[in-house]
Amino acid sequence: MYLIYETDAFILESSGRREADKVFTFYTEDFGLIRARAQAVRKMESKLRAHLIDFSLVRVSLVRGKESWRIVAARRIFFAPLHLIQPLLLIKRFVHGELSQPKLFSVLREAYKGNIPETETVVRILCELGYIDRKTLSLDPNSKEVVVLINKAIRESQL
After folding, report:
1. In Å, how far from its chain's centre is CA 4?
2. Which of 4, 48, 57, 86 shows its CA 20 to 30 Å from the CA of 36?
3. How many C-beta atoms surround the C-beta of residue 16 within 10 A?
4. End-to-end CA distance of the chain
5. Of residues 93, 125, 130, 123, the one with CA closest to residue 109
6. Domains of the chain with CATH codes
7. Could you tell me the CA-to-CA distances from 51 to 100, 137, 148 in Å, in that order?
8. What one-character DSSP code corresponds to residue 28?
């Protein structure tokens, strides 16, 4: 008998597998970055199809198999606002492996609710990941100095 894990997750990307399956890359609240497979999700009659859309925030139920995660249920919470797509792509680029980072997830959740502008979200993400000094948070997020620091951090990460 397998345990079913339920968690909130941002869908960072998806790709087709075989005829009707898809593999999703999630950034989850409880497990960090994971990849999970949904069987027959590309079929028109699939119940999961409408909920598993790239850059959405979903409540997902997962089963951990011997080699990978499988999606057994999902419910979409929000579609991604346009200002959150770039920060989600940063997460995909900078986060590797299953490691829960609740503060980082809460930054994304706040941005989803519209409480943080895009530049400030990027600065907070880079601070949480250790690429920018926390003093940067006290600067105006729309200043040229902050944009220079963001670009420098991304360039120096070599990711």
Report:
1. 20
2. 86
3. 11
4. 39
5. 125
6. 4-78 (2.40.50.140), 82-157 (no CATH)
7. 23, 34, 37
8. E
**3-state class of 94 per DSSP?**
helix
pLDDT 10s digits, 22-72: 999 999 989 999 999 998 888 888 888 888 999 999 999 999 988 899 999
Q: Which amino acid is at 5?
A: Y
The predicted pLDDT at position 17 comes to 84
Instruction: Choose among 82, 93, 30, 88: nearest CA to 59.
Output: 30
Beta-carbon-side half-sphere exposure of residue 40 (alpha carbons within 13 Å): 6
Neighbours of 131 (CB within 10 A): 20
Average pLDDT over residues 96-120: 89
Residue ranges of the alpha helices (H) in the chain?
A: 82-94, 102-112, 118-128, 144-157
User: What is the DSSP pairing of strand 69-78 with strand 32-38?
Assistant: parallel
The identity of residue 26, as a single letter, is F
Number of Cβ within 10 Å of residue 119's Cβ equals 18
Q: Which two tokens stand for residue 21?
A: 């399956």
